[in-house]
Write a structure and sequence with these properties.
This protein is of the alpha/beta class and 178 residues long. The protein has 7 helices and 7 strands, in the order E-H-E-H-E-E-H-E-H-E-H-H-E-H.
């Protein structure tokens, strides 16, 4: 079986989205890319400041409620359905629940050939990227850098601390095409 889904997990500003863009350029077949940021943007604004939805704390913490979890579950099922229908899918996610989030994905993606990729980045470097971006709450990168990887099992890990996203994408692509 060939890889049908690539799941990239890493903290905020670790470089996942850049890796995804480079992957789409270097992989020989077309791959659709979906990120948790797009899911959040698709939700009603009222859910972005609600106990039931998703809340971004001033210190960079993120809290999710039952309405967010329900919509996220539907999103996950939809991505799995696209892969089952023949689309190759790259998922850019932040496993706020660490291993529990991976278990949710494993259940949804059951029966598909999935490449699990950990995207690591030194928290200080990610925090500097976060500051330069200006579209993140300060503290998210540091808060998420380690917790998103707790208990998660990967097929492959890349580290963007000192390695360009394009090189990390080439490493992932080589794993997919080998």
């Amino acid at each position: 079986m060939t890889t049908q889904v690539i799941v990239l997990n890493g903290g905020s500003s670790a470089g996942k989205s850049e890796i995804v863009r480079h992957l789409q350029a270097v992989l020989p077949q077309p791959w659709l890319a979906f990120g948790v940021d797009s899911l959040i943007e698709a939700m009603p604004r009222a859910m972005q400041a609600s106990d039931a939805g998703i809340e971004f704390a001033p210190d960079g913490g993120v809290n999710v409620g039952p309405e967010f979890m329900a919509l996220q579950s539907a999103w996950m099922e939809g991505l799995a359905a696209m892969a089952r229908a023949g689309a190759r899918v790259v998922i850019d996610d932040v496993f706020l629940g660490g291993v529990a989030t991976q278990q949710r994905w494993r259940r949804v993606l059951g029966g598909l050939d999935v490449l699990w990729v950990g995207v690591r980045c030194d928290s200080a470097v990610a925090a500097e990227r976060e500051r330069a971006r200006g579209d993140r709450i300060p503290g998210m990168a540091v808060t998420q850098a380690a917790v998103v990887h707790e208990g998660v099992v990967y097929d492959l890990e890349v580290d963007t601390t000192h390695t360009e996203s394009s090189k990390c994408a080439e490493t992932v692509a080589a794993h997919v095409t080998s």
